[in-house]
């Protein structure tokens, strides 16, 4: 019963390679739960831009808005392709979607799965989730360059942080922490230097903490947080942080849990006013694109986040359990993208 009306944006580089596997697993898991997945593919990315001169039209935005959810691979041109300005595709597609669809929660769970190899000698039990802000901070394009190419050049990207945006982010993070067994929430910022935005975050955090007496809280400056993420990642349960810090910390989180190929992301509009979007944390990986060796696990785990967001908790858990069994049994021989996808599918049954 029920159909998931899914937009699929495979994108560039390894994006299409990993999305193919994720869509296959998603379709099977949904099918096992009596659901149908009806995918509509959107060809967006560097190649499409080079062909058409358009990154993402208003018409496409309107069509995307009509879907239940979006499965996204990755965008970003190969830096060897000098015709594509750095970051153009990322800003005009990925960031545009996050902003237009109000994906204010950028949810990034990190788990060290049994069988995954952490580069840390004693990683301990890593199981935390980063609640990264998704629509504000230095990402909003509030800045510019004056006196360009002169010794007096001035370049700015002014971080935007609103009471409304920080409040709904922090509230979501407290709810998340409240729902987890350890009930711990860490605010990460840099309020010793970024006193204005950091102050807004800290005051909002402290005020809302009063409503969640069962959640234990602490605060770390982002520089120190990178130390603890290396020396004692088991200390983290839920982290709430700003857009840029969250970007950086979640690549580090991917690395310590065995690789960025396992890290999934939900761009969530928690108010339900537009479709949410699910993707791996990693990018288009031009260095390995086209070889069929990218790990699709992150994209597969993103499809579990998608199922969970749409209310299909059992199907989401099925996907996660299949990944867990696959990781535990995979051994150390290298596998192709396709082989990993098939192995997870086999675990799903
Ligand atoms: P990246 O995440 O693409 O790659 C970083 C490193 O991780 C590379 O060595 C890559 O080979 C490896 N890697 C990434 N995904 C992997 C996977 N699934 N399996 C195995 N190895 C994997 O980051 P980058 O090199 O900084 O960025 C490349 C391009 O992607 C840039 O244009 C960037 O702007 C873009 N980008 C897009 C997104 C997105 O669309 N969501 C996210 C990050 C970066
Ligand atoms: C991510 C990416 C994006 C970000 C880029 C490609 C705009 O790095 O999703 O982590 O910085 O958010
Ligand atoms: Mn990133």
UniProtKB/TrEMBL annotation:
* Keyword Ubl conjugation assigned: no
Top-level EC class: oxidoreductase
Q: Could you cite one Gene Ontology molecular function of this protein?
A: 3-isopropylmalate dehydrogenase activity
Q: Which Gene3D superfamilies match?
A: Isopropylmalate Dehydrogenase (3.40.718.10)
Q: What is its EC number?
A: 1.1.1.85
| SUPFAM superfamilies noted in UniProt | Isocitrate/Isopropylmalate dehydrogenase-like (SSF53659)
Q: Which SMART domains match?
A: Iso_dh
This protein's UniProt keywords: Manganese, Metal-binding, NAD, Oxidoreductase
| Domain Isopropylmalate dehydrogenase-like: residue ranges | 3-344
What cofactor does this one take? Answer: Mn(2+); Mg(2+)
Database matches in Pfam families: Iso_dh
The source's superkingdom equals Bacteria
Which NCBIfam families does this one have?
Answer: PRK03437.1 (NF002898)
What is the designated name of this protein? Answer: 3-isopropylmalate dehydrogenase
């Amino acid at each position: 019963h029920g159909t998931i009306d899914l937009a699929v944006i495979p994108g560039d580089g390894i994006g299409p390679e990993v999305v193919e596997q994720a869509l296959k697993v998603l379709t099977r898991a949904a099918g096992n739960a009596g659901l149908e997945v009806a995918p509509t593919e959107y060809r967006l990315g560097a190649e499409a831009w080079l062909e058409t001169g358009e990154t993402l039209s208003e018409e496409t935005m309107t069509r995307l808005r009509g879907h239940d959810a979006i499965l996204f691979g990755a965008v970003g041109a190969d830096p060897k392709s000098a015709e594509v300005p750095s970051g153009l595709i990322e800003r005009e597609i990925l960031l545009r979607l996050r902003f237009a669809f109000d994906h204010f929660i950028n949810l990034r769970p990190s788990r060290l799965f049994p069988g995954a190899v952490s580069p840390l000698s004693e990683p301990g039990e890593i199981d935390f989730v980063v609640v990264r802000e998704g629509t504000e901070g230095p990402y909003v394009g509030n800045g510019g360059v004056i006196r360009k190419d002169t010794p007096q050049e001035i370049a700015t990207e002014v971080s935007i942080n609103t009471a409304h945006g920080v409040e709904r982010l922090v509230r979501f993070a407290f709810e998340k922490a409240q729902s987890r067994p350890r009930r711990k929430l860490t605010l990460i910022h840099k309020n010793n230097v970024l006193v204005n935005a950091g102050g807004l975050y800290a005051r909002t955090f402290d005020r809302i903490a009063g409503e969640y007496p069962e959640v234990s809280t602490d605060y770390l400056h982002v520089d120190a947080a990178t130390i603890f993420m290396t020396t004692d990642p088991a200390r983290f349960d839920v982290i709430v942080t700003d857009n840029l810090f969250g970007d950086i910390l979640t690549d580090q989180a991917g690395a310590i849990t065995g690789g960025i190929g396992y890290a999934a992301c939900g761009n969530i509009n928690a108010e339900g006013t537009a479709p949410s979007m699910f993707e791996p944390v990693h990018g288009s990986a031009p260095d390995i694109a086209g070889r069929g060796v990218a790990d699709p696990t992150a994209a597969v785990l993103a499809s579990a986040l998608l199922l969970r967001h749409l209310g299909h908790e059992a199907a989401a858990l099925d996907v996660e359990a299949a990944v867990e069994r696959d990781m535990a049994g995979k051994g150390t021989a290298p596998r192709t993208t396709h082989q990993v996808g098939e192995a997870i599918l086999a675990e799903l049954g």
